[in-house]
Amino acid sequence: xNGDRPPASVCxxxxxxxxxxATCSRCGxxxxxxxxxxxxxxxxxxxxxxFLHKGDCPKALASAETAQRLHATPEGHLLxxxxxxxxxxxxxx
Length: 93
What we know:
Blueprint: H1 32-54, H2 57-70, H3 74-91
Helix pairs in contact: 1-2, 1-3, 2-3
């Protein structure tokens, strides 16, 4: 799925676990872009929940999918599944 790219929850340089700080504790790499990516995915998940609550399933699903592509999380997976299942239900005659 990601090819040779490490998941967004690890340092892209040394693969140390991401601890939510701007500098990798192992190699000293600048993790600000990683933090921005995770924050953007968080906002997209918030939007997905908002759209789902409003009944806009296509937008909810699109937001959840984009969030998971940017920064996959177990909770994001569940949100994506919920959005997809809800969208599928509204498509049924």
